[in-house]
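## retry 2 of 3
previous attempt timed out at serialization; input unchanged, resubmitting
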Amino acid sequence: MNAQPAQPEPARPSTAGLPGRSAAEIRRDIDLQRRDLGSSVELLRGRVAELTDWRRQVREHRSQLIAGAAVAGFALGGLMMLRRRR
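## retry succeeded, writing output
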């Protein structure tokens, strides 16, 4: 089974800005906007948690981290060798 992340519902047509709206229509629009905002915040929270999970990032980018560490080690070793010669 192919699990896909939850996608937000398509935006509903809004009656915002229409003259002569009733209080009930305005409340309905506010409730719809509140729900849409709530689901957007939850999606954003999940994405932020995913991107800031350093253990997951290390697992996914292990080879790049090893290569970077090797380059940094050689560079530092070269600098130390140059200082010893002086």
